[in-house]
Design brief:
Layout (H helix, E strand, L loop, with lengths): L4 E2 L9 H8 L26 E10 L2 E5 L14 E4 L10 E3 L2 E12 L4 E3 L4 E2 L21 H15 L3 E7 L2 E6 L5 H10 L4 E5 L2 E2 L3
Parallel strand pairs: 4-7, 10-11
Antiparallel strand pairs: 1-9, 2-3, 2-6, 2-12, 3-4, 5-6, 6-7, 6-8, 9-10
């Protein structure tokens, strides 16, 4: 039976510092131990601005951008990227309860591998018209069996650390959402598990220009 695997919203961003340090080097998959490319390679932070779609959570002035699952409590809870330069001034679409304010937005800015810095006013998701994302599979089903995909799924949270958001076996492939990937982790996954088995999707996407 297919299942969706998500990082617990309460997990802290424990591996982001590792991402920053390791992202400075750009080894190839062939430099990593056999079958362990995903545990050895890390994408460098994006050089250009990126956009992230998710929940902005402000708890007592500490702001995070949650790109993954959000706990269905009131107020909601999630674990995300620390956000610099955020202001609620002139921003519509938020809710508040106690010292918590939140809302769903498309947020543009820079990402240094550890935190997200806002560079433009956010856009409410109800008003956001994103560019169509091309299906990397071309709509053709994969061929991996579900038992293999579920085994791989159990390995990914440890391999990807705090950048792991969620994953789901679907149509013969394992679809994996991460905070950011420039293609490094996709190549690593291909190296570890074979081509066309795991599809890595980056939650942060480079802007059109």
């Amino acid at each position: 039976m297919s299942r969706r695997h998500r990082r617990s919203p309460g997990l802290a961003l424990l591996a982001l510092a590792t991402l920053v340090l390791a992202g400075c080097a750009t080894p190839s998959a062939s430099d990593a131990p056999p079958g362990a490319s995903l545990g050895s390679l890390y994408p460098a932070p994006p050089e250009e601005e990126v956009v992230g779609v998710g929940t902005v959570m402000d708890v007592g002035g500490s702001v995070e951008l949650c790109l993954g699952p959000v706990a269905e409590s009131y107020p909601p809870q999630c674990s995300g990227l620390p956000v610099q330069g955020w202001t609620w001034d002139g921003v519509e679409g938020s809710e508040s309860s106690g010292d918590t304010t939140w809302g769903a937005y498309a947020v543009q800015g820079t990402y240094d591998g550890e935190s997200f810095t806002v560079t433009r006013p956010p856009i409410m998701l109800a008003l956001y018209d994103p560019m169509m994302i091309e299906d990397p599979t071309g709509g053709v089903p994969g061929t991996a069996d579900e038992a293999t995909l579920l085994r791989i799924q159990e390995e990914l949270p440890a391999a990807l650390g705090s950048s792991y958001l969620s994953s789901s076996p679907q149509d013969g492939r394992l679809w994996v959402d991460v905070v950011w990937d420039d293609g490094t982790w996709q190549r690593a996954a291909d190296d570890d598990f074979g081509a066309d088995v795991v599809v890595i999707r980056s939650a942060l996407r480079e802007t059109a220009g």
